[in-house]
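Quick one: structure tokens for this chain, please?
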Amino acid sequence: MSVFKKNNRVWIDLFVNGARVRKSTGLEWTASNVKKVEKDLIPQLKMGIMTGQVTLRKERLKTVRYYAEVFMESKRQITAPKTHERYSSIIENVILPFFGDNAIKDLKVSQIEKWRNDLLKRLSAKTVKDYQSVLRGIFQKALHDEEIGRNPMDALDTLKVKKPDVVPFMPHEVKLLLETANGWFKNYLALGFMTGMRVGEIIALKWENVNFDKREIYVCASISMGIEGSPKTQSSIRYVPIMDSLLPFLEDQRRLNGDKEYVFVNRYGQTFYDYTTIGLNQWTDILKECGLTYRRMYEMRHTCATNLLMSGQYSVNEIAAILGHSTPQMLFERYTRNISAERKPFNKSIDIYGVNAMAL
């Protein structure tokens, strides 16, 4: 029977009936506590085992599967349903088949590297990085329980991921889409291209939040996987102006659907379960009909942001507020390359300090 240090605590290592048992005393690892355990606690424990007053069982190993369940439960109330479903899919299909029943404290960095390298042979770096993030979260739960002393994911080299290019639609392409679409879908496209609202926010929009008098839309909800909740971030709760060009489309939609609670409903008069329903049907079909290269429906938002920036009519802070960003940083990171070709020639004659007027 001996003591050892783990997570800065005093642990006891002993064998009972041929089985190794390790138990934490809960005491901080200090010289005085180690002496106390060796002098007092261990003799008492030995006597208790000999007399049968103390019964110890072999420590049940906590597996990756166990902490995957802990991780998922911790995320249940704080993540969007679609995100929670994605985490579940990654765990069931990618993580557990490789690590599932291994004791989490016995996993080596080399095993994790092999798992990652095998994935990189067939998947993009971005996808693998997303998988790593979930595995890191699982290890973090074990770290919080002091089941492991450090998160082994910290030892991995950082994967370099190239952000996907923003591919906005050109103005003539937007015009073509609006001319080709019919009915509610035409109005849906107009709202997406002219407000930059996220697609989940569009299908969650209610008529009570469309103010025709003030010419503004109150964005306060989003629908994903059939569940309505708050938008992506706190700053996403916002007011969006109704542009002159958008007004006729909204008025037409009110004529088509003004008696319903939601601005857009499916053919059964119900809210859309998820924006992917539209993406797999109307969106894909109209791109083919217009002869346009496939792009995600999310590019409506990117198109709006790019054209607002190019118009020169709004400050970056105003555009960030319209899109629901807390700061303009995202605009600079995502859209600068798309408007670089439209920059005005730099006026080199500007004298910002007035030194030209000085006699030199």
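The chain has 13 helices and eight strands.
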